[in-house]
Amino acid sequence: MAGQRVEVDGGIMEGVSTGPEARPVALQPRLGRRAFLSDVLALLSHPHPWQGGQILRVSTALSCLLGLPLRVQKIRAGRSTPGLRPQHLSGLEMIRDLCDGQLEGAEIGSTEIMFTPEKIKGGVHTADTKTAGSVCLLMQVSMPCVLFAASPSELRLKGGTNAEMAPQIDYTAMVFKPIVEKFGFQFNCDIKMRGYYPKGGGEVIVRMSPVRQLNPINLTDRGSVTKIYGRAFVAGVLPFKVAKDMAAAAVRCIRKEIRDLYVNIQPVQEPKDQAFGNGNGIIIIAETSTGCLFAGSSLGKRGVNADKVGIEAAEMLLANLRHGGAVDEYLQDQLIIFMALACGVSRIKTGPVTLHTQTAIHFAEQLAKAKFSVKKSEDEDDASKDTYIIECQGIGMTNPYL
């Protein structure tokens, strides 16, 4: 019997095998145990713009969880700077370390890696992007793995806490955390130091205990918006007035559409000993009567005035409230891997399904054999809206160490 390896080729995947009786093979998800099958599941490219970093995060986490050796090719092949970036490399190295695995091709700019996982262990693990690479993306790849570790874990994640092209740490703490904990686990997120583009220098410590299984979730009843609140921050040499201007502009923008709620956005000067470098930004959260959370956020850039930053975050929040879903566009894809691993049927109501979400679903189906369906919402209230129900029959992953 030949040892199975999963190959990911930059994009969408199809099962093929070698030899005259070639056929796709269903993987039996087994934590901490190598699957040995005579066929090879090769994963071929397809002309779709799949998200490079997202493919790497989802496939590596599932490889680690399921004990499947993995080869990923053509990593970020279409980008102006192809191959692994510092944040991808530090995430891969952390996954390797937390399961005592083997990792080949792991260097900046590499377009192909091979990863062979072993037993997931708890303990203290550090990942440092040494840049403003997002600590939140490091958390995305590692969190599902340590839930099925043999003992509690402490993840020391270093890089950018409020970075472009990634969730801000405030989003992770204020939106992602309370929702993902509905799967039946809890984690502590301690922001030791904030770090911004281009220097990074932030540090977050995540502590969590393993679980035996994850519960399914049902997030389909949005309810009505009951609270809107947030924080507009400045750090380093930027004047406090910038924080006040961002907050005021955001409040004015929201009031044009939502007049009957008090909008409480606090301007904040980050303490000097808790922020590295200069930065500014804003996050605004809407909470509903059923406990759903939506957010809009924006980061300041050189030459962009404070009002524009505040308005951008406000408009993002309002857009997320218009579509009728029960999760916002940035939470969708982050929930997919947990839905795939859970025991039972999970359902979430979303607005337009993002490319990141489509990518996560595709790889969760191919690697973990979870069953997903995405259908237009049949709810009367959603008739005129772009609203969908994502349903998943999870694989019921069980932690063999508990």
From TrEMBL:
Please indicate if the UniProt record lists Chloroplast as a keyword: no
Q: Which Gene3D superfamilies match?
A: RNA 3'-terminal phosphate cyclase domain (3.65.10.20), RNA 3'-terminal phosphate cyclase, insert domain (3.30.360.20)
Q: GO CC terms on record?
A: nucleus
Q: Which UniProt keywords apply?
A: ATP-binding, Ligase, Nucleotide-binding
Q: Which residues form the RNA 3'-terminal phosphate cyclase domain?
A: 51-374
| UniProt keyword annotation of Ligase present | yes
One Pfam short name? RTC_insert
Instruction: Note the InterPro entries from the entry.
Output: RNA3'-term_phos_cycl_insert, RNA3'_phos_cyclase_dom, RNA3'_phos_cyclase_dom_sf, RNA3'_term_phos_cyc, RNA3'_term_phos_cyc_type_1, RNA3'_term_phos_cycl-like_CS, RNA3'P_cycl/enolpyr_Trfase_a/b, RPTC_insert
From the UniProt record, list the reaction(s) this protein catalyses: a 3'-end 3'-phospho-ribonucleotide-RNA + ATP = a 3'-end 2',3'-cyclophospho-ribonucleotide-RNA + AMP + diphosphate
Name the CDD domains on file: RNA_Cyclase_Class_II
Q: Region Disordered: what ranges?
A: 1-21
GO terms for biological process? RNA processing
RNA 3'-terminal phosphate cyclase insert domain span: 220-321
Q: Which GO terms describe its molecular function?
A: ATP binding; RNA-3'-phosphate cyclase activity
Q: What is its EC number?
A: 6.5.1.4
Q: Which residues form the active site?
A: 356
- Record-annotated residues binding ATP? 140, 330-334
Q: Which family does it belong to?
A: Belongs to the RNA 3'-terminal cyclase family. Type 1 subfamily.
Biological role? Catalyzes the conversion of 3'-phosphate to a 2',3'-cyclic phosphodiester at the end of RNA. The mechanism of action of the enzyme occurs in 3 steps: (A) adenylation of the enzyme by ATP; (B) transfer of adenylate to an RNA-N3'P to produce RNA-N3'PP5'A; (C) and attack of the adjacent 2'-hydroxyl on the 3'-phosphorus in the diester linkage to produce the cyclic end product. Likely functions in some aspects of cellular RNA processing. Function plays an important role in regulating axon regeneration by inhibiting central nervous system (CNS) axon regeneration following optic nerve injury.
In terms of HAMAP family, this protein maps to:
RTC (MF_00200)
What is the designated name of this protein?
RNA 3'-terminal phosphate cyclase
The species this protein belongs to is Lynx canadensis
